[in-house]
Amino acid sequence: MNILFIASEVESFAKTGGLADVAKSLPLALKRRGHDVRIVMPYYAAIPNREKAGHIGGFTLPTRPGHTDIPYQVREMTLDDVPVVLIEFPNYFDRASLYAENNNAYPDNGERFAFFSGACLQVAEKIGFRPDIVHCNDWHTALVPMLLKTRYANHSFFQSTRSVLTIHNGAFQGVFERNQLWALPEITDTYNEAIMQGHAYINFLKCGVLYADKINAVSPSYASELMTYLGGHGMAKNFQERSSDVRGIINGCDYADWDPKTDPLIPVNYDVQHLDDKVLCKHALQKRAGLPISDLPMFGMVCRLTEQKGLNLLLPILDKFLVHQLQVVIVGTGEPALQDRLTELMKAYPDRLAYLNAHDNALAHLVEAGSDFFLMPSLFEPCGLNQMYSLAYGTLPIIRAVGGLRDTVVDYDTQPRRATGFSFQEPEPLALLSTLRRALLFFLQEPCEYRRVQEQAMRTRYLWSDSVREYELMYQEALGVSNRR
Ligand SMILES: Nc1ncnc2c1ncn2[C@@H]1O[C@H](COP(=O)(O)OP(=O)(O)O[C@H]2O[C@H](CO)[C@@H](O)[C@H](O)[C@H]2O)[C@@H](O)[C@H]1O
Predict the structure, then answer these.
(1) How far are the Cα atoms of 8, 187, 200, 212, 213 from residue 149, in angstroms, in the given order?
(2) Which of 17, 123, 369, 398 lies at a CB distance of 3.0 to 4.6 Å from 281, suitable for a disulfide?
(3) What InterPro entries does the annotation carry (predicted)?
């Protein structure tokens, strides 16, 4: 199949979170299966060595009458063997960050990604790449399925093209004033209640859910949760209406980047047979984090500092947990109030808690390798990647049993034989605290059993080669549906 894979961030080029990891691994896995894949993303200032990108051409996106058309350039780099088509428009993409600065979203994000959505399909035609599947990801690209069914409905080039929308995070929906989206007259000039939020606002994700031929969430549990009022981020009805077209496909883990045996970013490599060497990674982590070097139990956490990641469950009980003989390292950037609270706690427990306000991939690898447990008490988690990395590194995940976390980690207390970590259900700080204490006692009192669970975790595999087959099946189902909506 010809697959046009559209994403706002791709690991190795530009990344703020897990979407980028998937937008690298999935296209590469599709390519390995023999598909012809093109990735399309913005030509951000942050892309390393972007001046080396080849120049494909310059095109102009027609916009709403009364506004100027948008002239842009198209460049190309490669990701292994996969061409990465880069849309260049400096006004929108030559910025210090991808979507926000100082935790404030750029006010023209709607305008930027409306333009990007229009340009992606125009470029496919200009470069003569006729996609069977246009694969969109999250709100940034969720207007594309609508364009295929409106602007391009009777266009011969896209006659047999079908669209798929992957939902990596349904909490971010992209809600913008309709007037801001002048780059796409289909949006600005027609009133479509189904994709509106109030009278003046368009919800990008709703639009994608309405128009995409198939939709998938990044885990089976998250797909089910999206249909519920509690887990549907206010869009349960929209997902329910498309329930026969919604799938749940678990992400794979990229073991080329995340394998303690070969990882070049950790000080000592280890595997199941050489687990004793892992403690040297702990000592390196303690040194890097400014904690005393010791063999105390180490609890790590790496994440965007947002409510989603369960900081509001952790922060109220962290001081109670820190009275025990242990260490905690938290790495993350995000909401200033959460950063401030962590900094305060670190001052109160300087030998036990290190908070590093950083976005640092090498440090994330060191936390995975140097910790005994990894914290993911998320309120919701579409899939989660860090728990998969943790399993591979023999670092037992402590999770809230929600979304993809629940699909990938087996709780010790409920299924000891198959266990790979610890989990709790209630979104309550005390439920987290008692699980943390369970894990701590387990580590201290049952070292042999801890080692057995650790080995079991390390042997667990979530392979892209498995997930990609489910994507293929969904593509085939999409190609079987007519182009009418
Ligand atoms: N401070 C920091 N320093 C270094 N690295 C950091 C970092 N903060 C985060 N990261 C890295 O960013 C990635 C985060 O991935 P996740 O899947 O855990 O979450 P995210 O919520 O961004 O992704 C969304 O999309 C993915 C992909 O589908 C879903 O798995 C997930 O549930 C959904 O919320 C990991 O590779 C992690 O190491």
Answers:
(1) 21, 12, 22, 9, 10
(2) 369
(3) Glyco_trans_1, GS/SS, Starch_synth_cat_dom
| Residue to mutate (ligand 1; options 10, 169, 301, 378; most atoms within 8 A of CB) | 169
Amino acid residing at 209: V
pLDDT exceeds 60 at position 44:
yes
Q: Which residues are annotated as a binding site for ADP-alpha-D-glucose?
A: 15
3-state SS, residue 41: strand
Distance from chain centroid for Cα 447: 34
Give how far the C-alpha of residue 145 lies from the chain's centroid of Cα atoms, to the nearest Å. 21
**Any ligand 1 atom below 6 A from CB of 118:** no
Residue 447: pLDDT above 90?
A: yes
In the CATH hierarchy, which top-level class contains the domain 2-252+465-479? alpha beta
- DSSP code string of 304-339: -BSGGGTHHHHHHHHHHHTTSS-EEEEE--B-HHHH
CATH architecture of 272-461: 3-Layer(aba) Sandwich (3.40)
pLDDT at residue number 194: 86
Mean residue pLDDT across the chain = 96
Write down the ipTM of this complex. Answer: 0.97
Residue pLDDT, tens place only, 392-424: 999 999 999 999 999 999 999 999 999 999 999
Q: What single-letter amino acid sits at 169?
A: N
What is the mean pLDDT of the segment spanning 41-62?
A: 97
Expressed in angstroms and rounded, the spacing between residue 77 Cα and the centre of ligand 1 is: 24
Q: pLDDT per residue over 98-117, tens digit each?
A: 999 988 999 999 999 999 99
**Contact in structure between 208 and 143 (CB atoms under 8 Å):** yes
Rounded to an integer, the average pLDDT of 196-223 is 95
Residue nearest to atom 3 of ligand 1 (CA): 359
Rounded to a whole number, what is the distance in angstroms from the first to the last CA of the chain? 23
With CA atoms as reference, report the closest residue to 169 among 47, 41, 306, 45.
306
Mean pLDDT, rounded, for 45-61: 97
**Residue-level length of the chain:** 485
Residues 6+ apart with CB under 8 A from 379: 307, 308, 309, 310, 312, 313, 400, 402, 427
Cβ-based burial of 174 (10 A; exposed 0-12, middle 13-18, buried ≥19): buried
Expressed in angstroms and rounded, the spacing between residue 334 Cα and the centre of ligand 1 is 12
pLDDT at res. 482: 61
Pairing of strands 422-424, 396-400: parallel
- The torsion of the CA quartet 467, 472, 475, 477, rounded to 10 degrees, works out to -100
Q: How far apart (Å, rounded) are the C-alpha atoms in residues 43 and 370?
A: 35
- For residue 6, pLDDT beyond 60: yes
